[in-house]
Amino acid sequence: MREFVKRWRKEEKGLTLVELIATMTLLSIAAGVIFSVITYGMNTYNRIETENALRDDADLLMSSIITELYSYGPDIIAVDTNGIRLVRDNGTREELRIFFENNQLRIGDRTMDTRSDVEVLDQAVPEPAASSIDLKCTTSATECSSGLIEIRLVLEQNHNGRDQQLTLESKFGF
């Protein structure tokens, strides 16, 4: 073993300054590329995770509205402030409101909790950038027994100081 070490030390000539600078330059370029790829991958992962969370929240809200509409079985649907009213008339008039309040969807007394904020129409927000539930009747009345419900959800999540928004529009007849 000693002979090997002695032979190795004799043949060691060392590195020149040029070789050392070239090696350090190549290592720093490789480290920069690796760091950039990892950072880009993490940012993409976070963006996709936020988009998926927004889609999940939008699906939850839309399915809640549709489920409530079909399970409640209203006779008439009427326009209401920030939403609609489902009216059932079985001798006594029963009403269920579906509307947006405080950046949340409300169905009757229940608040549909999500991780996302629901952008609600108010004076400070222009109409195309806000969530809404609209009723389109075959006539110009504010109450109808058949027509079209148009739902526009604008969901927003803040991740690492960046707001990410998802807009979902759906129309269905009743």
Say what oligomer this is: single chain
The largest sheet has its strands arranged as 5-4-3-2-1-8
SS element count, helices: 2
Helix content: 25-40%
Residue windows where pLDDT falls under 50 for at least 5 positions: none
The class by helix and strand makeup works out as: alpha+beta
| Mean pLDDT score | 82
Strand content: 35-45%
Number of strands: 10
* The number of domains: 1
The string of secondary-structure elements, in order, is HHEEEEEEEEEE
Q: How far do the termini sit from each other?
A: 90 Å
Biggest sheet layout: 6 strands, antiparallel
Round the Cα radius of gyration to an integer and report it. 31 Å
Shape: rod-shaped
Features:
174 residues, alpha+beta, six-stranded antiparallel sheet, 2 helices
